[in-house]
Give the backbone structure.
Amino acid sequence: MKTGEFAEIVEGELTGGADVEITGVAAIEDAGPGDITFIASPKFMKYLSASRASCVIVREFAEGPSVTQLKVANPYFAFARALECLYPRTVDTPIDGGRAVVSESAVLGDKVTVFPFAYISDGASIGAGTIIYPGAFIGRDVKIGRDCVIHANVTIREECSLGDRVTAHAGSVIGSDGFGYVLEGGVHYKIPQIGKVVIEDDVEIGSNVSIDRATIGETRIGKGTKIDNLVQVAHNVKMGEHCILVSQVGISGSCDIGSHVTIAGQAGIADHTTIDSDVIIGARAATMGGHVTKGFYLGAPVTPHREFLRAQSLFLKLPDMNKKIKELEDRLNKLQKESKDDASGN
């Protein structure tokens, strides 16, 4: 690909020639002839003058370096597009498509690829261009949209639905029973989980993620949301659009989460929590229910970012403060003893 072609794709502006050939993508420190690289942070500008790359994606042009520069509004996005253009993913061809089990009542759209040992149940509907990898289980009356990728050993339980361009990575389970029991006579009696899961368009689900079906109604993941590996989303959760859930996040039942919410690694959300749009929950933070308004939160229970840092600063000073308190107690005890001695005439 020529630099001019790529500049048109990302709507960028070039300093050098449009005929420079780019064949690969590399980090700024490692890039050589034929590579395109990027600088998104000023701290990496020191590498620019010595770079051997054929083209460097930048936010603003830098004077001096002879390397061709491509100015774009968002270098990270242009970097992603470069990877997409230069390393297109190819789809494997099934060795023996006949070894899959596909119900006669299932409806498969045009150019659906089903690998061996996949199982597609009665009444399932799969949109055009979707790929079902080996070991995937598609339950009764499941609906999957167009151009989805269901990786190996994914389970999609009965009556759940996925929109278009959804990716589910290996080992994830969509529509497992919600964790619901009622204590009766000293026994945990299971509450039937008869709802479903609805995954909207352009959602990506990492590996070994569990998204539970609703007790009644639906668990819903809004369009464009990205879920990292090893995340748990419980029954009846409602999640807005374009959220980010980082690895090992746990979301309890019946939470209502807005759009553009980021929940960092190992954070926990207690049941029936409401989280407004544009909230950031930091790593290992935990809500205790209630209503979380727009902002950046840390700690358990969650505390606004600045307040948490102030409290943490005081926490680190506690050993010194404790030492000073003991010294003051000793001085006070000594003064009290002297006072008693003076009162008794000793």
Observations:
- The mean pLDDT is 93.
- The chain has four helices and 37 strands.
